[in-house]
Write a structure and sequence with these properties.
heterotrimer; A mainly alpha; B mainly alpha; C alpha/beta; A: mainly alpha; about 0% strand; B: mainly alpha; MetI-like fold; 9 helices
């Protein structure tokens, strides 16, 4: 009997990690820990890469700021002021040190702290992203469920056509088309919004067209993939047959059983597309003159304000990494197979 | 007992033998097969047509310059003599700009995708097949690059390099290589688990042989259909960079550049935005549709 | 005649695969009396599962069903899905093969049972909960209160199958169909589950149909046996007439299946008489007896014309031109 148990122990990895689990806590925590560990080298790599790229610019930043007529003396002075006379690694460590203390540096253009600059422009971007995400996810799930109800039915074919359009259209193109139709022709929404206005209604009005420009392609991705996943659950999974055998109504089978299990795919998808979502603000905000971080980035690039560009790029990347991490964690928390692990039977 | 299309469960009177559904479904199947062929060949034809217009037509038939405009013929509407799509506010022929912009789109799109496929594919294959430290290290590098939103990464690199078509290709490759690496790695991981691969490894076949003869043929269909969609994404990104003025510089034509210039006169003459936008849309949609059709044909999930 | 619980008459199920017609079930008839146990035995592809799923209405769209299946006189074939749903889970219930995949992995056991209950009976949540715990007790799961809140992956295979049975019994069905319910379990658990089902059958007065490829199960547990091959019934008889002392197996296929079971009395190191070959391609059925290509005793008339299933002996039907002469005394 002891031998059998030993064999069982070796073959059942869950049993061995039983000891580990009793020491470290739930398997979810293990997953969290592991993910955090892998995120650290990525974070380091992100900061390093940003710094390297930004500091490879040919030409002298001081000269760029001071202009063509700058004298060598002025350039040298500015160099020292900006700390550019230090070797590469020193500057890097200085920057990292600043980062760890939350300081992103000083912008060349206005000598203002990059932090304050970002803080001023962050709210607009956040509202835009939130609006976009909520609407594109909500509509995406709704359309996917309706389409999956009857594969190859009318709703399904229509949704596939619409999502093909969404996948193929560029956000900036969509933005201009929307502006033309809704801001110029019918004047329901403003084409340019220098601020979010004073009331929630004004804010929604200002943000709708930008959100739609980013959101429509995203909605296309979400609805398509979720629909495919739901249909696959409905057709291939045995527990769906059990649910039907119980006499459960088709809508309930679709929503409570299939869609619920497809949500995991959706979470992964949202995480993977986080980068696209966040990056799209860089091009959409300038079109609508929204004073967000994306517009700041474009502006900074155009005046060669390197610390500002650097700071914003790093923030973008770090947020993306954080978002992916969050999605992983949500997965661990929501999937009962990870949350509870195997108990003694 | 009418013949029914096999879309529903049909029941017949007791004692009756079911009609031979083979007759019914043969017709149904033929329609299905035709539809599937249409979904594959129509987008392919569109792409070939666009390629022809952009690369072959200008050598067959002289078209007006895409950079220099005839100020006397400024802002001609479409279907004017000599300028069948009209001219822009400084007299440059719109069709010519589309053609030369299209050349850029094709070149950048396919070059970036090819680089991504080859380099990214190799990295992904190595990471997926060999696992262990190779995988860990390569995956971390891929993760770092993917952490940057594509557009932001391309912007940063474009900012560093002077804008030109070649530099545009480098900038966008920084995004496409990790994207392909990740997809290839995923595919390789799946294929690696297949029993016949395990059998090959157990029988002592050399790694490179297994990769070449077994893993690669199973991974390639997925990569190719992904790459078509990838070209579409690259073209859109390239357009975005041109739109922002960080890609192809004036006065060389590009679709993004055309759209940007059209933005200023959007209210009065929307066609300067609409025409290049529609062409871009058709191009990307044809790529997506073809990618989908190939995925269907080759049974990739 | 009309006191049968389920009467299946000339059931046929066909679907189109790649432009060809597949006759999964080709004219199957049987009856089940209340409280009795029927075993449907056959290889994979014999149509045994498809037939029962057709009755339950669980086949995918694109299937063509004809024939009759009357549950206590009311016809099931031809009903709309909404109408069939009233029977599914309440009068007719099914237990499936792989409990690991047949239970929703992200839903607690308890909820899956209460869902079965509340679909057909009007009950409050707490009433349904109590009922579910009772059901868990009925299927002999220890600590049912605790198990109620657990997820499927936290239970062993045998317990999961018990949960499946609990779900099936939620509304006290008159007929329980067990589709290879024990195939995925180890032998000890298999016996436990079979015993459980028979005890429950006695307690609740249900009829039981179990589908299997294991003739031994039929011999041990069934009252009536139906043997299927390539969509048709090839032998049908009460179990006593087939197995046990004085039992005779007539159809060559059944004989071959019986012979293939290893016995402890068999001489050591003798070759096991397995049935060679494979079932016929359903899109390309041979004329004549469908088993003839694999039958050691096939004659020319076997290959030419298909024998019809006929009651050659009271209560015992078979379809064979050259049936076995003597049965084997077991």
């Amino acid at each position: 009997m002891a031998l059998a148990q030993q064999v069982q122990l070796q073959r059942d990895p869950g049993a061995r990690s039983d000891i580990v689990r009793r020491v470290t806590g739930s398997p979810a925590l293990q997953l969290v820990g592991r993910r955090l560990l892998t995120a650290i080298p990525v974070l380091l790599g992100v900061t390093f890469l940003t710094f390297v790229v930004m500091n490879l610019i040919p030409g002298n930043p001081a000269r760029l700021i001071l202009g063509i007529n700058a004298t060598p003396g002025q350039i040298q002075q500015t160099d020292i002021k900006l700390g550019l006379n230090h070797p590469f690694w020193d500057r890097y460590w200085l920057w990292i040190d600043g980062l760890l203390h939350g300081n992103l540096g000083i912008a060349y253009s206005n000598q203002q702290s990059v932090n304050t600059d970002l803080a001023q422009h962050l709210p607009v971007t956040c509202w835009l992203l939130l609006y976009t995400l909520v609407v594109s996810l909500g509509l995406g799930v709704l359309v996917a469920v309706l389409a999956a109800r009857k594969p190859n039915g009318i709703a399904d074919r229509l949704s596939l056509a619409v999502s093909m359009l969404g996948l193929s259209i560029a956000p900036y193109v969509l933005a201009l088309v929307l502006i033309y139709v809704f801001a110029v022709k019918v004047q329901w929404f403003p084409a340019i919004s220098n601020s979010l206005g004073s009331s929630p209604l004004q804010a929604i009005r200002a943000l709708t067209l930008p959100a739609a420009s980013i959101g429509f392609p995203l909605f296309a991705v979400y609805s398509r993939l979720l629909r495919a996943d739901i249909v696959e659950q409905m057709q291939r999974e045995d527990y769906i047959v059990t649910a039907k055998a119980k006499g459960v109504s088709p809508w309930r089978v679709l929503i409570v059983h299939a869609t619920r299990n497809s949500m995991f795919t959706l979470i992964t998808l949202v995480a993977l597309n986080l980068g696209t979502l966040i990056g799209a603000v860089a091009i959409i905000e300038p079109i609508f003159s929204l004073p967000g971080i994306g517009a700041e980035l474009i502006g900074a690039i155009q005046i060669n304000d390197l610390p500002l560009v650097e700071g914003i790029v790093v923030v973008f990347a770090l947020v993306t990494v954080a978002g992916n991490l969050l999605a992983d964690l949500m997965y661990a928390v929501l999937d009962p197979r990870i949350r509870y692990g195997r108990s003694a039977s | 007992m009418a013949a029914q299309l096999p879309d529903m469960t049909t029941t017949l009177a007791p004692g009756a033998a079911p009609p031979l559904p083979s007759l019914v479904s043969a017709r149904h199947l033929r329609t299905q097969r035709v539809a599937r062929a249409v979904r594959l060949w129509v987008p392919a034809a569109i792409l070939v047509a666009l390629f022809f217009i952009c690369f072959i037509w200008p050598y067959v038939y002289t078209i007006p310059s895409g950079t220099v405009g005839d100020i006397l013929a400024a802002q001609e509407p479409p279907f004017s003599p000599g300028h069948w799509l009209g001219t822009d506010p400084v007299g440059v022929d719109v069709f010519a700009m589309l053609v030369y912009g299209g050349q850029v789109a094709f070149e950048v799109g396919f070059a970036v995708t090819a680089i991504g496929m080859v380099i990214g594919g190799l990295i992904g294959l190595a990471a997926g097949y060999f696992g262990g430290w190779t995988d860990t290290v390569l995956s971390r590098i891929i993760d770092v690059l993917i952490a940057f939103p594509a557009l932001v990464l391309a912007l940063a690199v474009a900012e560093v390099l002077q804008p030109s078509e070649l530099h545009l290709i480098w900038a966008l490759s920084v995004f496409s290589v990790p994207a392909f690496a990740r997809v290839t790695r995923g595919s390789t991981l799946v294929v690696r688990q297949l029993p016949f691969i395990q059998a090959s490894r157990l029988s002592g076949t050399r790694s490179w042989r297994i990769i070449l003869r077994h893993v690669l043929p199973n991974v390639i269909p997925g990569i190719i259909s992904f790459s078509l969609i990838g070209v579409g994404i690259v073209v859109i990104l390239e357009g975005a960079l041109d739109f922002l003025g960080l890609g192809i510089q004036q006065p060389k034509p590009s679709w993004g550049g055309m759209i940007a210039r059209g933005q200023t006169v959007l209210t009065a003459t929307p066609e300067y935005v609409l025409i290049p936008s529609i062409v871009l849309l058709i191009f990307v949609m044809a790529l997506n549709l073809l990618g989908d059709a190939l995925r269907e044909r080759w049974g990739v999930r | 005649m009309s006191d049968a619980l389920l009467e299946v008459e000339d059931l046929r199920v066909a679907f189109a695969v790649g432009g060809r017609e597949v006759r999964a079930v080709d004219g199957v008839s049987y009856r089940i009396e209340p409280g009795r146990t029927l075993a449907i035995i056959g290889e994979s592809g014999s149509g045994k599962t498809v037939g029962c799923r057709a009755i339950m209405g669980l086949l995918p769209t694109g299937t063509i069903i004809s024939g009759s299946a009357r549950l206590r006189g009311s016809e099931l074939i031809g009903l709309s899905d909404a109408q069939l749903r009233k029977h599914r889970g309440s009068d007719l219930a099914m237990v499936f093969q792989d409990p690991a995949r047949s239970l929703n992995p992200t839903m607690r056991i308890g909820s899956q049972i209460t869902e079965a209950i509340r679909t057909h009976r009007k009950m409050s949540k707490s009433q349904a909960r109590d009922e579910a715990v009772e059901l868990l007790r009925l299927v002999r799961i220890p600590a049912p209160d605790r198990r109620f809140h657990e997820y499927p992956h936290q239970l062993s295979g045998g317990m999961r199958q018990r949960v499946m049975i609990a779900i099936a019994l939620a509304c006290r069905p008159k007929l329980l169909i067990a589709d290879e319910a024990t195939t995925a379990l180890d032998v000890t658990t298999q016996a436990q589950i079979m015993e459980l089902m028979l005890e429950l059958q006695a307690e609740l007065g249900m009829s039981l149909v179990f589908i299997s490829h294991d003739l031994g199960l039929a011999a041990s547990y069934a009252d009536e046996v139906v043997v299927m091959y390539a969509g048709k019934i090839v032998e049908q008889a009460p179990a006593k007439k087939l197995f046990g002392t004085g039992g005779t197996v007539r159809m060559r296929y059944t004989r071959a299946l019986l012979d293939a079971i290893p016995h402890i009395e068999r001489a050591a190191h003798t070759e096991l008489p397995v049935v060679t070959g494979r079932p016929p391609d359903p899109t390309d059925m041979p004329p004549g007896c469908s088993f003839a290509p694999r039958c050691a005793h096939a004659a020319d008339d076997c290959l030419a014309k298909a024998p019809a299933l006929a009651e050659h002996s009271p209560g015992h039907s078979w379809a064979c031109w050259h049936p076995c002469e003597n049965g084997v005394a077991q």
